[in-house]
């Protein structure tokens, strides 16, 4: 699996998909996976935990004349399976973004929407190169799909009406990108993908333009990101926790994307925990079984080691306090203490400023906690306490200590109220807000404060 003869090898670039709700992120990921599967025999894609690996061979099979595989030495593309900028900002690696590249999905009829703008802000802040997927071209009135044609030729073959409608919408998106400070153009006109954002018209529904998108992503990585992909394949594995999950027979496990080095069964690892870094020994490295076997056998197969870039489930004792978004580091060539300090330093970068009085914030991951804290700072809402995890009795007790009425509130982002906290909440003078969209959560809270203040006048 891992090539031990070369210390320096190029790993697969990690790709994330972002965009406004309903613009087609999930459909695009499904289509990429689906067409990759139908492209070749089983094994044309490798299903990882939390990610899908599309090898170069498969991409070139799908892209036909668009790509010459001999131009590439990067192995393919690893797509993170959970779309959305929430998961994107959660997934950090050494202070930066875990994803090397992003696909920003924009509904070609709908243009930029609030979450498109939010995603752009995050991409700008993290300096992540991206490509725009102008999705749903099939909904253009009069659109007539040209099977198997590159999207540029397919567009040329459309009726005048479809052409002009689509052009208008695409130029609207290019204009909106320009308003956001990015120069952009249709991808076949872009020479330098670092200076200009390539826009790829496509349909996640019919699959038109999807090979073009994969080609652009591959070309962008190969031309501009090759150095960043050079890793020491035998070095100590480094990764990021996607999710903490209880798994029958294994207890608490962490789904991890490995972006550097190699993780081996039996390795000692340090994982960012809710209170302290967790030091533990790997009991099993798990991957999904090959697609055909999923229903007949246990869901996972054990592997001896896993090299970057890959998604893997780590089973080890004491992982129940692990945090989504936190680092995972293998202890090799260094002492446990050194690695613990590294993990602490990495976590300390995620700073949330708290005050003596304010709201209690709970979020599902470190990244979302940070995003919540940023949004609240902009809205000038002070934070009393901010933590990762579901809403527990302790949080209600803390919220009650806030000494201004409007502050006696808990803002929960992507978290649940624990059952044993339900009666505490009923009996407390604390208002709970829960939402899966940050700006709505902040807006709900602000509206509540305004109403309260108005009632008092
Ligand atoms: P997400 O919220 O961004 O993940 O969006 P989804 O992938 O769930 O898509 C939202 C809706 O748009 C679903 O009903 C999809 O079937 C539909 N959709 C997505 N892509 C396309 C497309 O290319 N063409 C058409 N006609 N519908 C699409």
TrEMBL record:
- Tr-type G domain residues: 10-226
Q: Which residues bind GTP?
A: 19-26, 81-85, 135-138
Per UniProt, the keywords (alphabetical) are: GTP-binding, Initiation factor, Nucleotide-binding, Protein biosynthesis
The record lists the membrane-crossing segments as none
- Superkingdom classification of source: Archaea
Q: Is Nucleotide-binding a UniProt keyword of this protein?
A: yes
User: GO: which molecular function terms?
Assistant: GTP binding; GTPase activity; translation initiation factor activity
Record's GO cellular component terms: cytoplasm
The UniProt entry's sequence similarity note says:
Belongs to the TRAFAC class translation factor GTPase superfamily. Classic translation factor GTPase family. IF-2 subfamily.
What this chain does, per the entry, is described as: Function in general translation initiation by promoting the binding of the formylmethionine-tRNA to ribosomes. Seems to function along with eIF-2.
Protein name stated in the entry:
Probable translation initiation factor IF-2
Q: Which organism is it from?
A: Halorubrum distributum JCM 9100
Q: Which region of the full protein is contained in this chain?
A: 1 to 457 of 597
């Amino acid at each position: 699996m891992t090539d031990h003869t070369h210390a320096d090898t190029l790993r697969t670039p990690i790709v994330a998909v972002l965009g406004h709700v309903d613009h087609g992120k999930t459909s695009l990921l499904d289509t990429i996976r689906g067409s990759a599967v139908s492209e070749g025999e089983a094994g044309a894609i490798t299903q990882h935990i939390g990610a899908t690996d599309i090898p170069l061979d498969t991409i070139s099979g799908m892209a036909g004349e668009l790509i010459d595989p001999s131009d590439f030495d990067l192995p393919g593309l690893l797509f993170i399976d959970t779309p959305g900028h929430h998961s994107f900002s959660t997934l950090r690696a050494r202070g930066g973004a875990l994803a090397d590249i992003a696909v920003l999905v924009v509904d070609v009829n709908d243009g930029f929407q609030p979450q498109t703008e939010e995603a752009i802000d995050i991409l700008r802040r993290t300096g992540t190169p991206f490509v725009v997927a102008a999705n749903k071209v099939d909904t253009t009135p009069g659109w007539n799909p040209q099977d198997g044609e590159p999207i540029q030729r397919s567009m040329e073959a459309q009726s005048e009406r479809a052409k002009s409608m689509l052009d208008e919408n695409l130029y609207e998106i290019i204009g909106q990108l320009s308003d956001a400070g990015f120069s952009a153009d249709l991808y076949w006109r872009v020479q330098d993908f670092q200076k200009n954002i390539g826009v790829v018209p496509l349909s996640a529904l019919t699959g038109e333009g999807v090979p073009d998108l994969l080609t652009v992503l591959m070309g962008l990585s190969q031309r501009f990101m090759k150095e960043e992909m050079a890793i020491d394949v035998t070095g100590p594995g480094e990764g990021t926790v996607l999710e903490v999950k209880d798994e029958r027979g294994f207890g608490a496990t962490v789904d991890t994307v490995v972006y550097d080095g190699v993780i081996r069964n039996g390795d000692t690892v340090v994982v960012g925990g809710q209170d302290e870094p967790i030091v533990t020994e790997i009991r099993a490295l798990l991957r999904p079984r090959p697609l055909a076997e999923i229903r007949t056998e246990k869901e996972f197969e054990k592997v001896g080691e896993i090299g970057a870039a890959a998604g893997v489930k780590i089973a080890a004792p004491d992982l129940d306090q692990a945090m989504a978004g936190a680092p995972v580091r293998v202890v090799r060539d260094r002492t446990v203490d050194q690695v613990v300090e590294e993990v602490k330093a990495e976590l300390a970068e995620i700073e949330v400023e708290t005050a003596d009085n304010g709201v209690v914030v709970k979020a599902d991951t470190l990244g979302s906690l940070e995003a919540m804290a940023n949004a609240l700072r902009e809205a000038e809402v002070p934070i009393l306490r901010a933590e990762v995890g579901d809403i527990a009795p302790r949080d209600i007790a803390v919220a009650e200590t806030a000494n201004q009425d409007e502050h006696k509130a808990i803002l929960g982002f992507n978290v649940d109220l624990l059952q044993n906290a339900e009666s505490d909440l009923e009996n407390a003078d604390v208002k709970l807000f829960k939402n899966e969209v940050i700006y709505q959560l902040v807006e709900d809270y602000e509206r509540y404060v305004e109403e309260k203040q108005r009632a008092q006048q």
